[in-house]
Amino acid sequence: MAEADRTRHLAEPGLWVQPLSDLDVFRGRPALFLDRDGTINIDTGYPSDPEEIVLLPGILPAIRAANAAGLASVIITNQSGVARGLFGWAEFEAVNRRVVELLSAEGCRIDLVLACAYHEDGKGNLAVADHPMRKPNPGMILRAAEIAGLDLARSIMVGDRESDIDAGRRAGLTNVFLLDGMPCEKLMAVIAAHSGGASGPSDLR
C-alpha cells in the first residue's frame, strides 16, 4: 500500500479506520465485533511479519455465519506494538492484509477494521494512558457504530481477553463471548437468531 493510501486510513495518529465493504448496506444492522490477535489469528506477541500469520480455525464458522446473516464483521484491535515503536503502520497494514486474505480464502469477509495504537508506554503522541479508543474502553466499537450506523443493542463482541469483553459491555453490548480458539455453540446460536436470509452486502442493497 502506498504511503498516501495508508495515511488516509489514519483517522488520528493512533487510530486506524479502514472500510473494506460498502458500509451503507449495514445501517440499522448489528455487527460481529472481533478482536484480532488471539481470536482470529494466533497471537505471536506483537505480530509484524505477514508470513507468520496463522488463523485460529475455531472462529471461522462464526464469521461465515455472520456474513450469511447480514451482520457487519468488524475487527477492533489494540496495537501497542505500533505505540512502542516495535513496528509501524506499514507493518500493521501488511499483517492485517494477510489476515483478511487468509480469511477470504476460508470464505470469511471482513467489512471494517479499526486499530488503536495509543498506550501509556507509547512514544511521542502515541503515549496516552487510558485512551478512549483503547480496549477495555469502548471507543472503537462506538466509532464503528457511528461510521456504519450499526445497531449495538443487537451486536456481538468476541475476544480472548477480559479487555475485549469489557469493551463490549461498556459499549452496551449484551452478547459478549470470551473464546479460547474453540467453536462456541452459543455464539453460533446468537448469530443464527439474526439471520434474515441475507448472505452479504450485495443481498442487503
Automatic annotation (TrEMBL):
Q: Does the keyword Protein transport apply?
A: no
What do the Gene Ontology cellular component annotations say?
cytoplasm
User: Is Ion transport among the key words of this record?
Assistant: no
Source organism (scientific name) = Mesorhizobium australicum
The opening ranks of the lineage are: Bacteria, Pseudomonadati, Pseudomonadota, Alphaproteobacteria, Hyphomicrobiales
The record's annotation in NCBIfam families points to: HAD-SF-IA-v1, HAD-SF-IIIA, Histidinol-ppas
Stated name of the protein: D,D-heptose 1,7-bisphosphate phosphatase
Q: Give the protein family.
A: Belongs to the GmhB family.
Q: Which domain of life is it from?
A: Bacteria
The Gene Ontology biological process terms listed for this entry are: carbohydrate metabolic process
MF terms in GO: metal ion binding; phosphatase activity
Q: Which CDD domains match?
A: HAD_HisB-N
Cross-referenced Gene3D superfamilies: HAD superfamily/HAD-like
Q: Which UniProt keywords apply?
A: Carbohydrate metabolism, Cytoplasm, Hydrolase, Metal-binding
Q: Which residues cross the membrane?
A: none
Q: Where in the cell is it found?
A: Cytoplasm
